[in-house]
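Quick question about two entries, pasted in order.
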Amino acid sequence: MNFPKIYRLRQAFDRTAVNDIPGTVQGELKRLALEKTIKPGQRVALTAGSRGVANIAIILKAAVEYLRSLGAKPFIFPAMGSHAGATAEGQTDLLAHYNVTEAFTGAPVLSSMEVVEISKTEDGVPVFIDKHASQADLIIVIGRIKPHTKFKAPIESGLMKMMAIGMGKQKGAEYYHKAAIQYSFYKIIVDAGREVLKKAPVICGLGIVENGYDETARIVAMKPDELEIKEEELLVLAKEMMPRLPFNEIDLLIVDEMGKDISGTGIDPNVTGRNRDILGVFPHPVNVKRLFVRDLTSNSGGNATGIGLADLTTKRLVDKINYQATYMNCITGISLEKAAVPMHFETDQDAIKVALGSIGLTPPEKSKIVRIKNTLQVDEIEVSEVYLEDMRQRSDLEALESPRPMSFDGQGNLLPLIVHGAARKGDF
């Protein structure tokens, strides 16, 4: 089979970023005049999620230092639903992967899967929160605001979801996902989040938005009574800044790595356009005929949730799957389809041959191929030469090299994506 030649491309996204992260965190918290509410000696719980949020350890450390300056006694607790195998130890270990430890942040990490029911929604859905958080004097909800991978609404993945599903641990997460089939995900998240704001001692939220380069773009503190509306505003910004593929029509999308540290579904449907869920699918401009995922990130801890969105993968990825963690995550999220293991091959070359042989009458050498590292990092990618005319008309794309054959090592696997340096205009 003849493979097409490929280009290395660099995409230009909005690179607005926070330069002084600790200073911004503390400045935002000071802006809310929390010293008027927080009393010396009070225990303040800080949420820590399971995603690979940029600079999360630094953000938590800055919040801890600010609280200590007021005489408070902060602690961190995992707010990640059923992730990390739904065990207290697993969630502690996962946070440690992101350097969220007492040694770095200056606050103890208290992990438990026990929850306390604090309320019920108008539909009678119980609202749970982490046991340690329920015993705190105050709670600060800290998390990233971004598009959700299962649905589209004014509130998607952010602080409201963290209060409902994250703080609800495995018990709450499983119940809410089941209830979402009847009431909708948006309604469950918002209703449960509102109850947490009413019944739990949430003093404020700290929302984080990232740009298309996986960098911290905005950090905004918000009072409880403005949390919902500000999250809606920040979600609009997050959607504008999120990374995206340069082309919508793709015969084969190659993703070098997937994982829970990349996206809740391992491979973000908001980037790939691939969406498969019992709640239905949301429309997306990207149309990928075949999706090939090559490997699983080490930080995912073997959790391969989302592999069911791929058409092909490798034996090396399958060998890394922790089925207990993957199944627990997918069962809790009522996403059984996302744990389905697709056909897998010994080498990348074998998988690519099968993929290109199943896209219709298009000759393989004329196929539209896009290759990315993962769905968080799509600023530097590879694409096949059939996109040349489209590239020439785009001011946001720069070629980093001339077209070359697809390169494989001696085992038949693709060579790593390597950054070649600054883009050179005129390479088209």
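Here is the second entry:
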Amino acid sequence: MTTSLSLRNTGSTGLLLAFVIIALLSLVLAVFVGVADIPPSDVIAVFTGHGSQQAQSVIMDIRLPRIVTGILAGVHLAVAGLILQSVTRNPLADPSIMGVSQGATLAVTIFLLFTVYIHYSGSTTVAELPLEWLPAVGTVGGLLAGGIIYMLAFRLDLGPLRVTLCGIAVGAVLQALAIGLIAGWGSARMEVLLEWLSGSLYARSWEHAAFLFPYTIAGLAVLPMIRRPLELLRFDASTARSFGLCYRRQFSLALLLSCALAASAVGTVGPIVFIGLIVPHLARFLAGKRIALVLPLTIALGAVTVTLGDLVGRLIGQADEIPIGIVTAISGVPVLIALLRKTP
């Protein structure tokens, strides 16, 4: 038995190491390949401090920040989906199930359509609200939506089924409001709004990566603390309490973490679909139900999926790049069907 356990642990470590290597290779590939045709030697020269000004600008100011932003967003969405699927015991759960995506969508819609200009008192000067506020606005909207759903579920029962039903209902209302506003009012920023709604890494900069980074660090720091609770939250409340779990506290902490990760990602890059739904299923398909392996594998797969999806969109669309949200929507459906066919 000891030998069998050792072999299993070795295989698990090897699987995780393989996907970490794949994630690193995806990062390297995304840096070297793009719409702008830059020879590999020039790309290497940029990192040694001898690259041309053009290569320096493309690599350091365009490709690298959008890659890093995409990796962080992919990790956020994938981990948020895994947590929500565990605590709600719903295999179809993703950030939209808690209304986070819809809340961020409504907040960004209001920001872009109705707060385009501000007037200073006693002056005719008009200033446009900066688009740099967009990630923060989306994050706040997502967190508020998650908070509303949590409070409704708390008053009712705080059971997984009630959380799911509240999320679906509130999310539908928020989505309907956002669509109604978009249909009823035009804006000079409509193009920006439509791009954000499709889920895109276009023009993402180091500022976007810096906005996400604190959430990533905090989220990854909390994950080891909730690893065992996540295993127990898959059971009903009475069973989980019989193992000594403080069900309400751990349930609330897991929901808070998932909402914070999802809201920050959606606020920064838009509602990229299928990442939070498919990546956890793929991780469990590869690693089984061992949460100690599923968690890091989900992180690696989230980074790989977004990095390669964005690269495919850039290469296929060339100058008119295809948003990553469209790429994941098209490719996600057959992957999900294949996973469901192989899952008992």
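Reply: The longest strand covers residues 117-119. Residues 1-8 have pLDDT under 50 and may be disordered. Hope that helps.
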